[in-house]
Design goal:
globular; about 15% strand; alpha/beta; TIM Barrel
Length: about 325
Amino acid sequence: MSQLPSAADRQYTAGMWVYGQIIDRYATDGYNEPPKTLDIIEQAAASGLVGLDLNYPWEPDVSVAEVGKALETNGIAAINITPVIYNRQYRSGSFSSADASVRAAVNELADESVQVAKDLGARYVKFWPGQDGYDYPFQVDYAQLRENGIGGIADVCRNHPDVQFAIEYKLKEPRNRLLWSTAAASLVNIEDAGVDNLGLVIDFGHSLFAKENPAESLHLLHSHGRLVDIELDDNYREWDDDLTAGALHLVETLEFMYGVRQIGWDKPLKLDLFPYREDRIGAVKESITTLRKLEDAATRIDVEKLAAIHSRHDALAAHALVRDVLLG
C-alpha cells in the first residue's frame, strides 16, 4: 500500500452518466440534451476528474480507438467499463433472465466489455444487474434466480481469470427486489459464486438507501477482501437521489471518509451523481470540494481520543468529538 494522499491531493473520478441525458418518468424528454461520449470526456476533464466509469456500448459511430484517443488527449483514464445490462433488452433480467437467449446475449456483451476494458487499460469491469430480481410474490423461483444470476456472473469471471470484476449492489430500482441488494447479501452471493476475481463496489447512497451505515458496510467489504471501488453521493434515504456528496448526511459522510483513510484506500474516489436541474460540471466540483474538506476534517480527529471513546462505547463523547471537528 502506497502512502495515503492528503485530502487536497485525493483524486476523483465519476460515472459518465453524470454528464449524460437525465430522464425520469415525468420528463420523458429528458432534462437535457443527450451528449456525445467524446464530449463527456472533455466535460470530465473540465471538472477536474482523473478518470471515468464508462458505460458500454456507446454510440455505434464511435470506436474504442477514438475513445482511447480522447481519454489520452484530455488526461482522463478509463477506470472501469460498465456494460449496459439494465435497459429494455434486459427488462426481465440479464444474467438471471428465464430466457436462455437473453442470458447468451448478456454473456456476449460481458466478453466484449472485457476486451474494451483491456484495450483502454481499465482497472476492472463492473456489473450493475439492476434488472436481476423480481417485482411480485410467486413471480420467480428463488433458487433458479440465484443459480442463473450468480452462476452466470461466476462463469464470466472464470472465463477471464486475469480480469477484476465487481458488482455494484443496490436495494431496488428498477426492479422492486434486486438479487444484489445489500452489502451482506452481496457477500453471501460472492461466496456462492466461488470465484476470486469478483468483488463489490460500495455506493454511499445505495448504502443509505438500504438503511445501512455506510462506514460499517465499507469496513465489512474491506475486511472480506472484496472492496473494489468506492462511490459517493447523497440522498434522503428513501430513494437513490444521487445528490451532491455531503448535501445531507455530513456526519455520516465524515465517518465514511475517516473509514476510507482507516482502511488505507489510496485510489481515487468516484462520484455517482444525477444533477437533474444543476450544472453538471458545477455539481462535480461542489462534491469534490465538500469531500476534500470532510477528508481534511477526518485527518484532524484525535486517533487516541477516538480509541478511548470506542473502548467505552461513549456516544456523547463521540458526538462532542465530531461536533468540535466540524464546528470548532
